[in-house]
Amino acid sequence: MVEKTVLNIGFDDTDSPKGMCTTFLAYKIVELLQKQKTEFLDFPRLIRFNPNIPWKTRGNGAVSIRIKTRNPSKVKKQIKNLVEKYSDIKNGANPGLVFFESDTIPAEFKNFSNLALWQLIKRNYAKIFAKKNSLEFFYQGNGQGLVGAIGAIGYDFQDHTLELLSYRKRMKFGKERKLSAKSVKIMQEKTLPNTFNSFDTKKGRVLITPHGPDPVFYGIRGENVDSLVYASTILKSDEKLDGYMIFKSNQGTGDHLKNELNFENMKPFASGKITGIVSNIPKIEKGGHVFFKILSKNHEYWCAVYKPTGISTTASHLIPGDKICVGGGVRKASKKFPRIINLEFIDVISLAKNLSLTNPICKRCNKNMKSKGKNQGFQCVRCGNKASKKITVEIPRKIKKQLYIPELSAHRHLTRPKQRIGISNKTSKFEKSLSWFCVYGN
Ligand SMILES: [Zn+2]
Question: What is the pLDDT of residue 60?
């Protein structure tokens, strides 16, 4: 009997803004492999990479699947066919597909994946990497999808979340999604903190349904399989769905902001964090967007905080001398500003004293004294009491020493939600008996 080999399959960039979705392709691949009784070694892995690169498809998410098979060449052929069938090439998808037969994942792959989390990786570098490591790879279009395909195989989880994605029947693609908002709210109440970012109670908005024409009906994010499956049974809709699949993901881990930014690596589209001292008084621009500078290791950097993030008010209350750690994406220089960091969080480490010089107060009358003219001193208009100098008063600060993160509606896939701060999930061990994949029989 032929020995089984471990086959890692990575793919990315099969979708376009007009339809389809890389996770749906994964669902189709798993459906096919399940029919052949393939042995799965892990959940399908949905890895989100640097969200600040300009040509990303919706979420810059790639998928990898890890299986054991006696017939890798047959599986590869089947998957290649599916990738070709389900990629939206005519609408601008640039799919990449990678096969790697190995039990272990070498360190080079992990390094490649780590870089893809926060940098802009050129597709030529991915092609060179694939050749150097004797990967079997295929691409269409410009091959940009190879970056995510390799990265998804190489990704090494330190923390993870799960997402249950449900898929629509083909005839429903592009049609309006009708899901009871009330049921989503109830689901969140019943399953929090084992699920997250399902419903924005402040704005009364459902956060689990996409709005585009892709095959996803909803996606529930959470910490373990049981909670997600339970959550899905609470949701109410009349639409008959095709099935669901649970992915293991780096969503909600803040992965792209772990990298330390500095003068050398602060290239356009890089993501990361940097610690420094606020060095000017924040400017509030039209629309409520806030701009300020921080000084870090003898270099000054502009930071931008846009109104929709919900942390622009926090930024406007910063003063020179505040020590903060900020995270975000580096934007190219424009006519108006040099290179700038678009902030996705502000962590206030220490607050400077906000001191202000004011006219002295008359101790007898408890009234502000009036200036008698330049260098003439001050006098109380009521009792005539005199003083020579202005006094320093401390104005209470309006922000605290804490972490400020965007409002729910401004969260990206990778944003670490408040309830996950300080949490590292290592518990969802993969077992075949888990109901991580289901095609409904209706
Ligand atoms: Zn007085």
Answer: 65
